[in-house]
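User: I'm curious whether this sequence folds into something compact or stays loose and floppy. Could you predict its structure so I can see for myself?
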Amino acid sequence: MRTIFIINPVAGNGKAMKKWMKIKETIEFPFELAVSQYSGHATELVRELQHSPEPVLVIGFGGDGTLREVIAGAAGSQQVLVGSIAAGSGNDFGRGFHSFKDAVEIADFVKNPAASRKDLGEFFDGRTYQFVSSTGIGFDAEISVKVNRSRIKHWLNKIGMGKLVYLVYVIITLLRFRLFRLTVEQEGEMLHFDKVWFATVSNQPYFGGGMKISPHSVPDDGVLELTVVNRLSRLKLLLVFGTVFSGKHLRFKEVHQLKGIRFSLSADQPVYRHVDGDSAGRTPEDRSISYSVSASDWHSVNK
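Assistant: Here's the prediction. I'll summarize afterward.
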C-alpha cells in the first residue's frame, strides 16, 4: 500500500505545515508527499491515483476544505482510501470521520488496513459542488464568509482560541442579518418557511467548529438531513446556538428537520452559501437548487 500525504501549507494559518514538520520526524515507513498549491489542486492530485495498481492511503493534512478536495478526487474509486490529520481551524471532518493522531497510528493502519464506504453530498448551480460534512444557506453561511475573511481568526488561531471567532461573528451577524423566505420541495411536496435564519443540508452531525447541527446524520446511510431554523427572535436564536454543541436544539419548535435523498431549496432573495464551511457565493434569485446524495461514494479509513 502506498502512503501519500497531501498538505495544504496555509491551512490553519500555517498550523498544518508546522504540525507536519513535527510529525514527519517520527515517520518510520515509506511515504510520498504532495503540497496543494492552489484551490482544487488536491482534487487533481488524488484523481491521478484512482487507477493505481495497488491500494493508496491518502492522508489529507489540513482543514475541512483540504479534506473536501481530497475526497472529491477519491470519489468513485475503491483503490483510494482517505484518512486525515486535523490541522485546520474548524476540523469538523475529524469529528465525523476517523482521523489519525500521529505516525504510529498510521503505521498500524498500513499493517492492517480497513475501510468503509461513505456518502458524498452534491448540488448543481452552473457547476457541481460536492460536500463531505454539510452545506448551508443563510445565517451560518454568512458567518462562515465573515470568519474566513476575518483578521480576528488569524490572531485567535495563533493563541489556540480559534473557536471563539465563531462566537464573535455569531453576535455581529445576529445584529445585521436579513431574514428570508424558503421553499423546500421533497418528493413532490412543497413546504414553505418564512422568517428563516438558515437551512443546512448535512451528511454528518457537525459543522461550524464542533456544533452538532444534525445529531442523527450518518455518513453512510444514503440520505441527507435538512435543518431549517425560522421564526426565532434574536435573543432566542442565541439560546438555540447555545444548545447546538450538545445537539439539544432539535427540541425547539422553531427548528425543523427533514430526511431524504434529495431536497430542492429556493430562497426569495440571494443569501450567502457555504460548502463545508467555505464560501460558495450566494443563492440564485430565479430558480431552486437540488441537493442530493452523489452517485460517487468514497472510502474512509477505519481504525
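Summary: The chain has a mean pLDDT of 90. Residues 123-293 form a domain with the Tumour Suppressor Smad4 fold (CATH 2.60.200.40).
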